[in-house]
User: Fold this.
Amino acid sequence: MALATLRSREIVVIILAFCGLAVLADYFVRIPVLRTAVDELKVWAVLIAAFATGVGFFGYARRTIIKTRAREPGWPVLIYGVILAIVMSYFGIFYGVEGTGYSWLFNYVLQSVRTATVALGTPFIFSAALRAFRARNLDAVLFLIAGVLLMLYNAPIGEVIWSGFPVVGQWILDVPQTSVNRALMILTGLGLAAYGIRYIVGFEEMAAER
Amino acid sequence: MDALLMAGMIVQNILIAFSFSMFLWRRSILSDIAEQTFISTSMAMVLVGAVGQIRANGITPLLNGKVLLLVPIALGILIYSQFFRKYAFFQRWSMAVVLGVGFGIVIMTSVETTILRNLSESVLQVTQVPVATAANNILMIIALFCTVSYFIFTRPRTGALARVQRFGRYFMMVYFGAVFGSTVMSRLGNYIAIIQTFLNNLGMAT
Amino acid sequence: MVDAKEAGQKTGRTKTLADRVHSMDRRYMWWFLTILVATMLVIDISIPLKIGDETKEFVTFMDSFKRGSVILFSNDNTVTVNNVIGEACTATMRYLLERGVKIVFMSLRQDGVSLTLASLRSIPTVDRFKYGVDYVQFGYYAGDTRVVAALQRDVWGTLGADVRGTACKDIPLMQNIKQCTDFAAWIESGGGSQFTFYINNWSVPYNVPGACIQTAANLPDMTTWYRNRLLNGFVSDQTGSAALSRVLGYPSGLGRILNAQSAAHVLLIALILVGNLLYVQEKLRNQRREK
Assistant:
């Protein structure tokens, strides 16, 4: 019975509304007590977010244990992964990020494999350029022309080919890009403000409620 | 040469080769090892970051007398209730605090900076300025107006509004093209840098 | 895309150039790209480098800090982004420290802490500077805009303790730094929109000026905020990093990387042109066949 009461959505909405409205109120009124409370609330939110980031590790560990127990294909590689994660975490937590163990693993293992994995997406741009970037209509033509001009603006070779490319590229950035970006930011801001107010007063569902 | 440095360079090149084998050759146990290394070291970094922040933000001030921090620490621990189905709802309390504060901040910054500042900077002079500047300013005002009109969904897209919205779409295509052209540079930079690291470790590119 | 074999079987027509190109194994192109990049990294060709106005203004902004002033350096680089703008970050740190400006480091990304440490270690003159007096390293803080907003009026409460576990009250550099207005400026480095958090929460409400070092993916956003007069210059991607090193008089390791960038950009543009030429050719061919 008590658990059912604690589980109710109203408690979540009350907490959300209280926190959101307190922070909003602080922008409009200068009350020292409210100011101190809101400053404290912001620090609390940062600290709670720190706990939230640690959830990923435990979720990963749990999933690995489940897959290993079920002897899914490739399970020995998962065991290797968990051992590596534990070793790196041990060095980082007990010897600090400045320690030799964590630094070595960060610089030579994490850095190289993360960079290489993210770099895997780049060649696909080249195969897409040959097969997918078609100037089928005016929209696509404008997109491709602007893209090519910006590429020639960014790369040093652009100025070597023609001294006008940096000028044209800068014009595209300063005029059409800036005005469209401002328009999109205004619209995004309106949407965020409206969505935020809906969220604070409880009209929207939190993802965690589903 | 330092043994750790030598070992590091060898491990680096092995892992880069394993990762690249995924697209230069095919998916295999080697690319799986690289993938798992990526996931596990990333998770470890996340955990170390979280512990470090909890220590800095929570434990150290708590031990220095800030007793009130017991509340967010308790709320933070409640986030881990998601691993227990019967008590998983407790995590919503913690997320409510984080989201409530976040939305409170975002609402005001959206209005003050994102909307008002961009609007005020869009009010541009078209007289008593050089001709080129005036032309650019007129074009910017038109582009802004057309782009905003593209997102009007409450009226049917016919007549003059449809023409204005079409121009808005054209301006947006120029914008997306500019974004694409810029993104290519950063993606390539990453790709080139990792190849350079590989060659550097072999003593081939300095 | 029509598969060449399928096209041949269905219509009995011969494979066109477009069919051959589209059915080609993508790995050939990827190997070509990798070999091209590797070649440009091995051979040395000097391509002139342009120094943008925004980079010059970034340096002018750094020159405006008085000796002894304290700035916040938010190193939000990830390891992938650090490959692109790491040199600019190191050059900025070195220039500021050598000019007597004090720096408080923190990060909104987990990678940023270790990357800051690596950057500091790579500065040849770093031993001249005292930790806790000339610079201090705080850790990673989750929460993005919440962290920056919390720093507005409660720096000690938000940062807590540095990476060595020393509380703010015990760090000499932090004695007079209680709120964001006690900083002379902020500098943000990263690959996302984190600099907008500082613009939203520090620059607009409290007039704390700032600048950023970002990848080219954020060049459109940086240009817009620069035109809105809320950024005092910026450094964009490897071109900007190389330009910054040149302006500050530091050695740059980006010469050959920029050559490889140029070659890869030209290849990409050539592929877009070839792809579109093949498309037009195929379209005209189909139109003739229909007639």
Notes: The first helix of chain C runs from residue 4 to 11.
